[in-house]
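Page 47, continued from p. 46.
Same chain as before, 187 aa.
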Amino acid sequence: MEAPCGRSRADQTIDMVGARAENLFRSGQLVCSEAVLSVLNESLRGGLPPEHAVSLASGFPEGLGGSGCLCGALGGGVMALGLFLGRRRPGGRDRRGLQAATKKLHDRFKGELHSTCCRVLTKKVKDDDNAHFDQCARITGIGARLAAEIILDLRPDLIEEVDEEYLSKRESRIVAGIGRIVNLFRP
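Result:
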């Protein structure tokens, strides 16, 4: 991927990560936390089987299982930070500063969106399904982008591993719906 004038390859990748996560949400394939973790895992080659990324993140939507607390996009970002920056064994040292990276993600997310709480973020749109959906899709992209910025800042080596083909894909709601129907008949 050749970066346009004045933009680094990392900046372009970060934007693509955000757009891909938002697309997966908008297409109905994944919800906030699932989209953030899945896109970062796939695009930066985190090593989780795709179905494991979805399973790990599936309890976070709607503010931790519908409780309205922590925004799922932020939760998915924290899981992605752990995947790329976390300890590799019990008792291992936090060599890459996961705690500091997590705080940075939290602070940037809150700075950009003025809250980390799903209930607060969606308060003004809770009675308008379309506005709620659009806002959550946008927040999903923001969460993915912010997490990607931190990961690539601390692990610039990962830029060489980026799956550009995956990041370039876009699905429609129709194609995603067909996929869900096909999955109903899989063992």
